Amino acid sequence: MSNSSFEKSYLEKSLEDNIQTIKKILGSPADLIIRKSSIGIIEHKFAMIYMKGLVNEEQVNNNILRILELNKKDIQGNLFDTVYEEMIALTEIKKSQKLEQVIKTLLSGDTVVLLDNCDLAIQLGTSGGEFRAIEEPQSEAVIRGSRSGFVENLKFNLALLRREIKDPNLRINMMEVGKHSNQKVAICHIEGQVKQEIVDEVVQRLKTINVDFAPDSGFIEQWIEDSNLSPFPQILDTERPDRVAYNLLKGKVSIIVEGSPFALLMPITIGDSLKTIEDYNQRWLISTLLRFLRFVSFYMTLFLPALYVALVSYHPELIPTQLLFTIAASREGVPFPSLVEALLIALFYEILQEAGTRLPRKIGQTIGIVGGIVIGEIAVQAGIVTPLMVIAISLTAISAFTLPNYSLSIGLRVIRFGAIFAATLLGLYGIILVFIMIHIHLANLKSIGIPYSAPFAPNHLWDLKNVVIRAPITTLTKRQPQPFLEPMKSKQKTNGGKGKS
Amino acid sequence: MTLYKEPKEFINDKDIMFAVASNIASITILFLPRHIAENTVSADGWLTILLGGLIAIVLAWFLAKIASSFPNQSFLSFASYLVSKPVATMLSIVFIIQYIAISSFQIREIATLSHEYLFDRTPLEVVCLAFILVVIYAASGSRAAIFRLNILFFPLL
Question: Which residues of B touch A453 (CB under 8 A)?
Answer without folding.
Answer: 148, 152
